[in-house]
Design brief:
about 230 residues, Arc Repressor Mutant, subunit A, 2 domains
């Protein structure tokens, strides 16, 4: 993991590439670098939201623990995403925990700088607005799936979302390019590890997916899409 920031890496991210050099320099001067080794939390659910972040490199999963102790993977954070923006949602605390699933690198700003941050660039303000809007849309989609769909369709939708976020074409198929376990998929779809294992094993036998330890390859995305969209 690099200790000195590569300015080209930052400039290439969509949230920064349209900024002037002066604005970018001002934004970066307020930031601190946060290295997040695999398994490290950027913040914990319930903690006071003293910072917000932008992911430069790596991948995080956002996990929420329900009052009865059940863990739910709410979403994944991808390079270029702003996250931990409780300030934008007028929350004093973080509603979930963000955990690095691979070694990751982020920029962190004090929450008190949020207004200054978005005022520096319409691109940043628009990105923040789109981030909040996308999360609301994703939440509505997940609620609908949990309420109306059978498990197989929910798992298919979850894998297709991961393919869209982090799919990498290989000779074997489309590799989800960060570690994903069957337990993660269970927590994304509101079901059990046993049920996800049964579904995935059946799909492996049919040639739809291939798996391994923390590894998922979608071998037939079209058939998976058909499964996801089939009527109940």
């Amino acid at each position: 993991m690099p200790t000195k920031l590569d300015r080209a890496l930052i400039r290439d991210l969509s949230i920064f590439h349209a900024m002037s050099e002066d604005d970018l320099e001002a934004i970066l001067s307020m930031a601190s670098v946060r290295q997040l080794p695999e398994g490290k939390a950027a913040f914990e659910q319930g903690e006071t939201a003293t910072e917000f972040f932008a992911l430069l490199h790596g991948r995080l999963k956002v996990v929420q623990t329900t009052p009865d102790g059940q863990q739910v993977v709410v979403r994944h954070v991808n390079p270029g995403d702003i996250f931990g923006i409780a300030r934008a949602m007028r929350r004093p605390d973080f509603p979930a925990t963000a955990i690095a699933v691979v070694d990751s690198l982020a920029l962190a700003w004090p929450s008190s700088q949020w207004e200054t941050f978005i005022a520096r660039s319409p691109v940043l303000a628009m990105n923040a607005l789109q981030t909040v809007g996308q999360r609301l849309q994703d939440a509505h989609t997940r609620i609908r799936e949990l309420s109306t769909e059978e498990v197989e369709r929910r798992v298919a939708h979850a894998l297709l979302r991961l393919v869209q976020q982090a799919g990498k074409k290989t000779e074997e198929g489309i590799l989800i390019d960060f570690p994903v376990t069957r337990q993660d998929i269970a927590e994304m779809t509101g079901t059990t590890l046993h049920t996800v294992s049964r579904v995935m094993t059946g799909w492996e036998a049919k040639g739809l997916v291939a798996g391994g330890r923390k590894r998922v390859v979608v071998k037939d995305a079209h058939r998976l899409h058909v499964l996801a969209e089939k009527p109940e």
